Amino acid sequence: MLFMFNNYKIMSKVSVRRAKLNEYSRIKFITKLAYKIPYKKDTLVTKPHESKDEECQFKKKKVHILVATAGNKIVGAIRYKLSKPNNLYFFKLAVLKTYRNAGIGSLLISELEKIAKKKGVQKMSLDCAKEKKLDRYYIKFGFKIEKVEDKNRHRLVHMSKKVYSFADIPKCAGLTNYITPVFGFLKKIPTGRVVSYGLVAKRCGLSNPRLVGRILKQNTEPKKIPCYRVVREDGRLADGYKFGGLIGQTKRLRADGIEFDGAKIKNFKEMLWKGSR
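Now predict its structure.
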């Protein structure tokens, strides 16, 4: 419980933004700490297709960097670049050791996906070291392994993920006509209240509460469409909240004034909004 409390405390202070030019040395330092193991000589590996003069590329805006900050301190970073055809390639996700279990990596990847959708990108891609078992980490975010290459010092895993627009998943699932009513219903939820997946499904004419989860994945504007206020029937949070996972959702609910009793929302029945007809 103390571990989870500390994570909530950390995430309540974390925000993500674009890096500034004068912050590059700090970002480089954090990345070296994160990547020195298991490679030989404690050196940071630069892959053949990555720029060796990264700072110059960053200044020219050919390489972009997002940073996660806790207060005024940079605690995580991720690089990315837009390449043709319709691909966002990201690399060197780095988080300080003391912050790694707080969901900061998840938050950075979620922000990248929002950028990809905004830019109309069709695919996100990356490659990572098999030795560090990073492929298992990215699989949790929906990335799939394309191929594995044997290098001199490590095995390189190439992974990618299709970036879905509003029309993609709902189209194949027959849910296109439900996006507007579901998002419209979420906008009505008062601050400090939550609703269940089942209620959203019932009010919007969906046959299964799980379909609500699919539609919520299409949300790209969490401030306007508060999908974080949708929870399970028992007052617990569902896995897979796209804007920072369980920690990100908990952070937003706490900001609304919602309290927790362990993993459940405190006084859940009182917090549950029945909806306006």
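The chain has two domains: 2-118, 168-271.
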